[in-house]
Design goal:
The protein has about 750 residues and is mainly β. It is built from six helices and 54 strands.
Length: about 750
């Protein structure tokens, strides 16, 4: 069966199907009661320490009908706040307020009060890393800050966001409106977000005063389309679902526009509901047909996802185009409700660690036959191994009545494994096992709608829009890509299903798949040395280096980690500590000189090295998004470089080119590949294909290699891309997660 890799730990399997800004799993879990599919159970906000899990759930307390009712009053947009109701005078915080206790400083920085909402921005600084739990089993503070009015009324939270990098973080919370006649409130923070109970000062209180907003406060105009301009019609007759998409709002910025809309399921079989991704398939073109560059717009938060309403928003720069602009949705991914079955299972009176029960128990879930192949007991839980007769998005199992404290899983479309981890004694004896599946349907249309500002004539000569001239691979040409030519040589390190059809492992082979060599017990985190002579990977006994020519292996007992990255000269390796350590370590390729480079308790991922080996790059999620950092190894000082624009929030899989010029990463929808100069002076999008998702990224010289996962089945293909010339080839015999590439 497939062993878990870091991609599973980072929710990557789910990301390949679900855009980062839409966390569908809480909704799926609510219906399927722990349909584990290919996603771990760790809420991302909790796993990232001070990125707060309750903020995501707070969004769901606002009903869609109430929201729709409010939309008629929203007339303005403020960057950083969103759409607001300007029917009453706006108010702001009279002045920032700061309170310091035991070396920790709380600052309420800003407030914006409108007729429909109250937005408070606060920051915390000076929290030591020791205040945060090292693992997820330990309960930490998840109580959100709230506002209390003079009469004792507590305002309800509607949404929020925030995060940071030790020792500070910044949070923005939105509450219900403060009545117009009330100009003061108390900001109450019961405990510092994500910290261990009692480790830091608690019950923070700051008195706030509100004054009229200054005339200079910028409020952007909002063009509302209350009739929800439809984009086309229903889906094709071959689909069991019908879909309607609409353009609802246009927000005029100083330097462009934000377009906001939604698509809605119209008819669903048997009265069920569906789940859909948002804007991964949206494109914008001008009257000449030229495609216009867009960027994700997390604002406005004018609509919330429900089981039949899926909002989208994006931004374009510039105002002079060949009008009208046409927004097209090529396809929509519909996540069908999880279907489940249950059966009785008896572990016996004395189950042992490592014990396996081979069941081969079959179920019919809709039109899918699911087989529970086996159940395995581990030191802290159980693993369930399943097989389906057709490719689906996910399958998983769980023990009824025994909520776990963690878990994970993965799959390739047919074979899936899911696991549950428990604190304390493990469930045993007579148990009820639940089994569920998750199916994805991709509906092709396309749907489209055109829009232009009032007073502008169609096709009026305008300045040409910025287009994706640098796009190398897209929906238009990916199906026509040819295999790599026979004259092209090199070596590929691949994590995939081995020839026995049961075992997953890592192999080294030629580009055409010949001369395949299995790499010991390597799982999903193997790393190829710069000269292609050795492979480093985590083994059960510790970090291992296999020398390919001789077959000799060096084992570094007690050195455990993943996300391994070789230095340019092959003399050192950097890696992330195992489990919930999340720190960066360095060790010599001979096993000497182990040292810890970071000590902040925050999740991070290694992106690569500078060409001279003097600096190490990594990414970390903070309040602004995924930020690229550099550590100067001599001094061990880390510095923030820049935020990766529109990057995947969970796992951008960022990789620095060997010459140190570019950083490649996947976008927030995990279907586009961005290239950015290391000094952030130039950005390109070289691949965009909404129906696939980028699973891994590797460099060899000036060539990029990518594993692409089919959005419907997760079946893998491997692509070679030369970004400068846009040469692109497929490796037809490679189907898995690329771990390394060595080209001459």
């Amino acid at each position: 069966m497939k062993s878990k890799s870091y991609f599973d730990v980072l929710d990557a399997a789910a990301q390949r199907r679900v855009p980062d800004q839409v966390d569908l799993f809480p909704r799926i879990a609510a219906q399927a009661r722990r349909a584990q599919s290919s996603k771990t159970f760790r809420p991302r906000k909790l796993a990232l320490a001070v990125l707060f899990v309750l903020l995501a759930f707070a969004i769901l307390v606002v009903s869609v009908p109430a929201l729709a009712q409010a939309m008629g009053r929203w007339l303005g947009f403020i960057p950083g706040i969103g759409i607001i109701d300007t029917s009453a005078p706006l108010r702001v915080l009279a002045e920032p307020l700061t309170l310091t206790r035991d070396g920790v400083t709380l600052t309420v920085e800003e407030a914006l009060l409108s007729a429909d909402q109250t937005t408070i921005t606060y920051s915390v600084a000076g929290v030591p890393s020791s205040a945060y739990p090292r693992g997820e089993i330990v309960v930490s503070c998840l109580t959100l800050a709230y506002l209390q009015l003079p009469d004792g009324t507590t305002l309800e939270i509607s949404r929020g966001s925030g995060g940071g990098f030790a020792p500070s973080y910044r949070v923005q919370l939105t509450y219900a409106a403060v009545p117009a006649e009330v100009n003061e409130a108390t900001f109450i923070l019961p405990c510092l977000d994500g910290t261990l109970p009692g480790s830091q000062p608690e019950n923070w209180r700051l008195p706030l005063q509100f004054i009229p907003a200054p005339p200079a406060l910028t409020v952007m105009p909002v063009i509302e389309l209350p009739t929800a301009t439809a984009m086309g019609g229903t889906a094709s007759a071959s689909s069991a679902l019908e879909l309607l998409s609409s353009l609802d709002q246009v927000i005029e910025l100083d330097n462009g526009y934000i377009f906001a809309g939604a698509f809605h399921t119209v008819t669903l079989p048997n009265g069920t509901t569906a789940y859909a991704s948002d804007q991964s398939g949206l494109t914008v073109s001008d009257a000449t047909g030229a495609e216009i560059t867009t960027q994700s717009a997390p604002e406005p938060e004018s609509a919330f996802s429900s089981t039949d309403n899926f909002p989208w928003a994006f931004q374009v720069e510039g105002k002079q185009f060949a009008w009208p602009l046409t927004i097209t949705l090529e396809s929509a991914r519909i996540y069908l409700p999880a279907q489940e079955a249950k059966f009785e299972f008896d572990t016996g009176p004395d189950p042992q660690e490592g014990q396996e029960w081979v069941l081969n128990k079959d179920f019919e879930l809709g039109d899918v036959q699911v087989r529970v192949v086996s159940i395995q007991r581990s030191a802290d839980g159980y693993q369930f191994n399943l097989h389906t007769d057709q490719q689906i998005a996910g399958a998983g199992a769980w023990i009824e009545g025994f909520p776990g404290v963690g878990g994970g899983g993965g799959g390739d479309g047919h074979d899936f494994s899911s696991s549950s981890i428990y604190a304390g004694e493990l469930p045993e004896g007579k148990l009820t096992i639940g089994v569920s599946i998750l199916q994805v349907e991709i509906i092709q249309r396309p749907w489209s709608v055109s829009w232009q500002p009032e007073g502008v004539q169609n096709n009026e000569p305008q300045i040409t829009a910025t287009v994706d001239a640098s796009l190398c691979v897209s929906s238009a040409n990916i199906a026509q890509l040819q295999p790599a030519p026979a004259t092209m040589s090199g070596k590929v390190l691949l994590y995939h299903l081995l020839d026995d059809g049961q075992t997953w492992g890592v192999t080294m082979s030629n580009l055409d798949g010949s001369q395949q060599q299995t790499i010991g017990n390597a799982g999903g985190w193997a790393s190829l040395s710069p000269d292609g002579s050795a492979v480093a990977y985590p083994d059960i006994d510790g970090l291992t280096i296999l020398h390919l020519a001789s077959g000799a292996a060096d084992h570094f007992a007690g050195v455990n980690g993943y996300n391994i990255s070789w230095s340019p000269d092959g003399s050192r390796l950097a890696f992330i500590g195992a489990g919930a350590d999340w720190e960066i370590y360095l060790i010599g390729a001979d096993g000497t000189g182990l040292q810890q480079l970071t000590n902040d308790g925050y999740p991070k991922a290694i992106a690569g090295w500078s060409p001279d080996g003097q600096e190490l790059y990594f990414t970390a999620d903070d309040a602004e998004g995924q930020t690229l950092w550099a550590i100067e190894l001599a001094s061990q000082r880390a510095r923030a470089l820049f935020v990766l624009d529109n990057a995947s929030l969970k796992a951008p899989f960022a990789k620095i080119s060997p010459d140190g010029s570019w950083i490649a990463y996947r976008d927030i929808n995990v279907s586009s590949l961005y290239l950015v100069k290391i000094d952030n002076t130039e950005q390109r999008i070289v691949l965009r294909e909404p129906d696939t998702a980028i699973a891994t990224i590797e460099w060899s010289g000036d060539w990029l290699s990518l594993s692409l996962a089919d959005a419907r089945s997760e079946a893998r293909s491997v692509l070679l891309l030369q970004p400068q010339t846009c040469e692109a080839f497929l490796l037809p015999n490679m189907h898995g997660d690329l771990q390394g590439l060595k080209l001459p």
